[in-house]
């Protein structure tokens, strides 16, 4: 009888969980409570002089078990990332290719466009705060797509998923193009020949090797483990900033180029570069869920975006003043090749994409595991996840070597999908979820953000596509 009661209760508990995987710790915890119930019931049955009240105790105990199991579940799902690790993960996700292209964007957009860069930094910090509020409103939400589902059901989830996967794909293509471009300069004059790579240049062969070296990082799953890669990426980015500054101070390059005030015709394209610089929102829900104290997520966003915005702005002005109209879309490719600072910057730029693959792939890996691999053993999960990630990265490698137009792919990524993920979707989701609580000024603010984001996205996509097609045709002609 006791066993049947517990079986019925646990069966209903499993159905309530909608087939979610139940951690072993919860099963153990629940079993301990039931042992106590069985002991008390046996004592009741042994005492023949008093009427047994097991049925009443059982009802109370079911409620107690439900409460205690729920508390144990919350504890089991609680993250283990500290405030500092969370800041490192967020900065590591944000910083990277964006800083390489900021001098180029600032030079081509004019110094007035720096206000757009700073405004986007503040806006994206605010929209990351909105994501945190949406996550706090629904404890079951685990990632960006869950927020879409919470707001608009399966349609919202499908649209968010499509944009996320497209951004991951295009961002990884951009990182791999950057890896190839900088390896080409690092090993300029080097010739490598392999029988299996007769039709590949030396830089392409080296890019293949570099991607193969980075593949094992895709097998990492826990964000607290990946944080060391984020730290490495931050160090590489700071090294690039320092080497550019040293070039200005000790490298014999005069920072005397005048930056144009405003080149309005280039704003649509460079807005895509700026937006890509702040594209990291797809990982933010995972960072939020991995935190020991998710209530500090907004502070993590403020610290991270403030640091990154200051870095981008200062490096943008520094690079534009140093190299003027001749500045490359990647600042490291404009630096004098004879300087030791340049060699350090180039190697830092080569290593940066290799630290990014795991963080960019993390949302896809977590979604894959949550939806399809939850019933597998941990070792099997790792094998399946790592294999799929490796195959995708090799496909991305082939595409990156076929379309080597860094600034246009980067701008298209920011305008086509980045603006939706970092500005439009968070504002729309927040309005839908908090419709009954939102004030009119906040509603107007969000509508303005959605409208401006849409304008920047459409104009930037058209501009970047046009430039990409023109350059593609020009190369083949």
From TrEMBL:
A GO term from the CC aspect: vacuolar membrane
Segments forming domain Amino acid transporter transmembrane: 80-462
Cited InterPro entries: AA_transpt_TM
Domain of life: Eukaryota
Record keywords: Amino-acid transport, Membrane, Transmembrane, Transmembrane helix, Transport
Family annotation (Pfam families): Aa_trans
Name this protein carries in UniProt: Amino acid transporter transmembrane domain-containing protein
The species this protein was found in: Centaurea solstitialis
Lineage: Eukaryota, Viridiplantae, Streptophyta, Embryophyta, Tracheophyta
């Amino acid at each position: 009888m006791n066993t049947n009661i517990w079986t019925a209760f646990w069966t209903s508990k499993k159905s309530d969980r909608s087939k979610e995987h139940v951690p072993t710790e919860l099963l153990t915890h629940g079993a301990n409570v039931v042992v106590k119930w069985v002991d008390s019931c046996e004592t009741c049955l042994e005492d023949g002089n008093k009427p047994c009240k097991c049925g009443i105790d059982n009802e109370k105990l079911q409620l107690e078990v439900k409460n205690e199991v729920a508390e144990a579940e919350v504890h089991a799902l609680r993250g283990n990332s500290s405030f500092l690790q969370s800041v490192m993960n967020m900065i590591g996700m944000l910083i990277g290719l964006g800083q390489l292209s900021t001098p180029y964007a600032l030079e081509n957009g004019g110094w007035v466009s720096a206000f757009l860069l700073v405004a986007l930094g503040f806006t994206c910090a605010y929209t990351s705060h909105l994501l945190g509020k949406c996550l706090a409103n629904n404890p079951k939400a685990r990632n960006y797509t869950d927020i879409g589902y919470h707001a608009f059901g399966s349609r919202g989830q499908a649209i968010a998923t499509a944009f996320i996967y497209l951004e991951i794909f295009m961002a990884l293509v951009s990182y791999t193009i950057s890896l190839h471009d900088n390896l080409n300069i690092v090993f300029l004059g080097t010739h490598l020949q392999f029988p299996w790579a007769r039709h590949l240049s030396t830089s392409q062969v080296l890019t293949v090797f570099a991607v193969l070296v980075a593949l094992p990082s895709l097998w990492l799953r826990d964000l607290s483990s990946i944080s060391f890669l984020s730290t490495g990426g931050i160090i590489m980015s700071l090294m690039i900033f320092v080497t550019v500054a040293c070039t200005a101070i000790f490298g014999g390059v005069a920072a005397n180029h005048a930056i144009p005030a405003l080149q309005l015709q280039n704003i649509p394209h460079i807005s895509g570069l700026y937006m890509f610089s702040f594209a990291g929102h797809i990982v933010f829900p995972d960072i939020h869920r991995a935190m020991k104290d998710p209530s500090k997520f907004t502070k993590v966003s403020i610290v991270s975006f403030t640091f990154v915005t200051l870095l981008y702005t200062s490096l943008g002005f520094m690079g534009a003043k140093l190299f003027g109209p001749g500045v490359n879309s990647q600042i490291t490719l404009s630096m004098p090749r004879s300087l030791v600072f340049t060699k350090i910057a180039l190697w830092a730029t080569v290593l940066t994409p290799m630290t990014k693959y795991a963080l960019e792939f993390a949302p896809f890996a977590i979604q894959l595991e949550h939806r399809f691999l939850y019933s597998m053993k941990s070792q099997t999960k790792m094998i399946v996840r790592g294999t799929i990630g490796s195959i995708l990265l090799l496909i991305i490698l082939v595409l990156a070597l076929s379309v080597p137009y860094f600034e246009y792919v980067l701008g298209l990524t920011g305008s086509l999908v980045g603006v939706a993920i970092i500005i439009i979707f968070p504002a729309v989701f927040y309005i839908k979820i908090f419709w009954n609580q939102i004030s009119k000024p906040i509603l107007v603010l969000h509508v303005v953000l959605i409208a401006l984001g849409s304008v920047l996205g459409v104009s930037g996509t058209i501009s970047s596509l046009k430039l990409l097609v023109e350059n593609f045709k020009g190369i083949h002609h």
